[in-house]
Fold:
Amino acid sequence: MSAHSNPSQSQRPRPREMLMWTIGFAMATATVEAFYMLLTQNHPISRFNPDSLWMVYIVDLVWVGLPGYCLALVQWRFPGRVSYWLFTSAIATFAWFAIVMLPDRLHTIAAGLLALGLASTTGRLAAARPRGFGQAVRRSTPVAATVGLVLVVAFVGSSEWRERQVFASLPTVSPDRPNVLILLIDVGRASHFSLHGYSRPTSPKLEEYSRSGITFEHAVATAPWTLPSHASIFTGWLPNTVLSEREAPLRESSTLAQTLTDEGYATAAFFGNVDVGHPRWGLHHGFAHYNVFSVSLGEYLLSSAIGRYLALSGGFRRLIKYEDILARRNAGAINVEFLNWLNSIDDRPFFAFLNYYDAHLPYIPPGQFSKMFDSGQPPRFDLLELDYRSRWVPFGSSTSREEFLGEVDAYDGSLAYVDQQISQLLSELDRTGLLENTLVIITSDHGEAFGEHGHADHGRSLYEPEIHVPLIMVYPGIVPEGQRVESSVSLKDIPATVFDLLGVRNRRGLPGRSLSRYWNPTLRSDLPAEPVVSQLIADNNQRFVNAILVGDKKYIRYANAEGIKEREELFSLGLDPDEHHDLANTPEGKLLLPRLRAALDSVLNAEALARSYTARQPITPKPLTAQLEK
Ligand SMILES: [Zn+2]
Structure:
């Protein structure tokens, strides 16, 4: 090479310098990614995991660093082979690709071309002035590292600090007070539990365990999907009293958890359902410890734009045959998180809420449970084809139950897995002597439709498959053993029941009546048939559906956004448990309808009135209670 040629073209980067540059590019890319995550953390489809702020640095050191490390190795082994231009273009391609993929808007090929173009320019700049470029990289690396550190301290450290503060400021409480453990099987359809007479042995352990307490044969969720149903379990209010529209976060801070925190309890929630468990939806109010994410390989991947792209890419998923939601935590992992936390709270009484997400779509029971039930029908939907970007709801309407037998097999297997995991958790708590003094409540937030009434999945209707859920309560010496209650009960009475059994006086205005009225003999004799209400906001906030159960009569009213009644249905569940025969237009139905309409209006009006007295910021009542033709 001529001594007179341009020095920047003849120079070759040294391997050590290449390592420094690679690390510099990776850190800078991670910093951009971290800021992007912070800026978009409240976006509806973002699943912001605070830990991703530090995880992304590690992922980018691997991903963006990959070509840099390889080329440095080549240069070390075969000195002088790699030019500044080639080296910088290569690491910049990976870095730019990660950055242009951040908004998840560009087609892969377009993003790739854009990244190549930007990288080639970056490479030319570096090759023209390698010394100046190297200086810039050297100076920016510590800045990027410092920014990363500050983010970690600010977000991860502050939540740990806040949790410690809450814990340190808890009032003193007798360690003898009973613990409360709520185990919630997300998507638990009562009629698919052998506990409730299902022909397949999906819940043998729960059947056995239920004999040491009380089982409610007809517990009804206040809504057929996660957010509103949890909102009721946590606050005691009907969903439409505390949630202004279908996808509005819960803003109510007077919750079951907050009340028990006030009492001195150590409180914690562990969510398998990241979608709705995410603090953005407001279910975290009052919990000192709130756990939605674990540190896992999946979470590392999801922390970076590249990882998110791969996790959501149908092509990539098909390539590696990965069907599940990336980083889904199974019941076993949730139990481990809970037991670890339990070890950290000394002997303070606790309230813990565990949400198991194993029976949610896509149904993928693990190991032996995947083969446990076999109808001989293949699943109707190829899970690899599911569109994870549009929240993977593959079911159309007008499907029949027969078409879903393959899905039902997998769903039932998932229930059996959760049943086994719950049993293992309870055995562990029993071994440490905790169960003796613990009120255990096992339930579900809603059921699942498999073709009934043309529906699948959940959140679509107020028919029984979607709102009839299991409910067991066990509290040795207090809740009687082996009883089964046939009356319909609402999950919104869970907070009131907990307060009653624990003797909590200051309920923070939370409504509801203790379900102990169903087993307390002095109260039982004069129990009237109490109405139970379930609600659904559907069709993009344009349809409001209310159902009321009185005795075995179920009345469903469909109203438009203005509260004008569009349609009514009436079923007699005793004779017609599958809700096939709408009685609304029969002579018998016409006699019953006025009373059921009045019963529904009366419940909704009483709820709205109670709310207007207790809420600091009552939401505008939705047109559910409004002007109806009598
Ligand atoms: Zn749910």
Observations:
- The chain has three domains: 7-159, 179-294+329-405+434-528, 539-630.
